[in-house]
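ESCALATION

Customer reports they have been waiting on this structure for their group meeting. Please prioritize. Original submission:
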Amino acid sequence: MPMDKLDTIVTDRITDRLLAPQRVEKLLTGLIERQANRSADYTDRVANLRKNLSDTEARLKRLYDAIENGIADPSEEPLKDRITAIKTERDIAQVTLDRTLTELRPEARITQDKIAAFTAIMRDNI
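Update from on-call: job pushed to the front of the queue and completed.
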C-alpha cells in the first residue's frame, strides 16, 4: 500500500474519532456547565452591582443638594473627604459593573456552532 494512501486513511480515521463535535462537546462539558452556572449568577450579580452604583450616585447627589441648598459648607474638610470617598466608591462600582458585563459577553460563550466550526477548522488543518 502506498505510504501517502496509508497516511490519509490513518489521518482521516483519527480526525473522525478525535474531532467529532459530540466528542469535543463531551470534553468541554465541565467548562460548559461552569459557563451555565455563571450565567445564572450573572443576572443577580449585575442587578446588585447596578443597585450599588445607583445607591452611591444617590448619596453623592444628596451631598451636592445639601451644598446647593446651603445646608452644608463645601469648604469644610470632612465634607470634602466624604465627597471624595463617595466618588471613589462610585468609580469602583462602575468599573466592577463594566468588567462584569464584559466578562460574560455572548460572543465569549461556547456554543454548538462554535464547537462545530472549531472541529471543521481542525480537520482542515490536519
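Sent to customer with the following note: Residues 60 and 86 are 6 Å apart (CA to CA).
Escalation resolved.
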